[in-house]
Design goal:
The protein is α/β, with parallel strands linked by helices and 163 residues long. A five-stranded mixed beta sheet has the order 3-2-1-5-4. It is globular and about 55 Å long.
């Protein structure tokens, strides 16, 4: 019985990881095909919300008992979202990231004053045209920032900060 559970768990993790990796590939394709993307620039990645977890879609058991990182968390870690991008697309230079969510504001950068500058710079995009990935306006790029919107609730929370 134990080996069957192990095989089922491995299947769920493998299929989920493959699906999440496809999301990363779609994001990389979207970034590299963006008209404002310049491979010679170094960018700060800004994620609005956490990347989706897809492993749960392949789990057939009781979802009410889910805990922790087995199925709930994405392969794109919210504390270091640039790492999979740097791994799968090393030509996209992203040394820093800023994750903004409804519940947390995490900063992993040397410039702590960047937050207010970022929110002012991206005000028009966030207030007027931002959409949730994979929609067309879910990725914004300028000369310093790559913004990815993952979550509707977090986008609405940030929009409310401008009112």
């Amino acid at each position: 019985m134990g080996i069957l559970r192990d095989v089922e768990a491995q299947k769920v993790w493998k299929w989920g990881f493959d699906a999440e990796r496809e999301v990363i590939y779609r994001l990389i394709e979207r970034i590299e095909s963006h008209p404002k993307y310049n491979p010679n620039n170094t960018y700060t990645l800004i994620m609005i919300g956490d990347a989706p977890t897809l492993r749960i879609n392949y789990y057939s058991g009781d979802k009410s008992r889910l805990v922790g990182d087995l199925l709930v968390y994405s392969s794109i870690p919210d504390w270091a979202p640039y790492q999979p991008l740097n791994f799968f697309a090393p030509n996209i230079k992203i040394p820093y990231e800023l994750t903004i969510s409804q519940f947390t504001l995490q900063v992993n950068t040397y410039d702590k004053n960047m937050i207010s500058h970022v929110l002012l710079t991206l005000q028009d995009f966030i207030r007027n045209s931002a959409e949730v990935f994979p929609k067309e306006n879910s990725v914004f790029i300028d000369d310093k920032y790559i913004v990815v919107v993952w979550n509707e609730a977090d986008l609405m929370h940030i929009r409310s900060m401008y009112q």
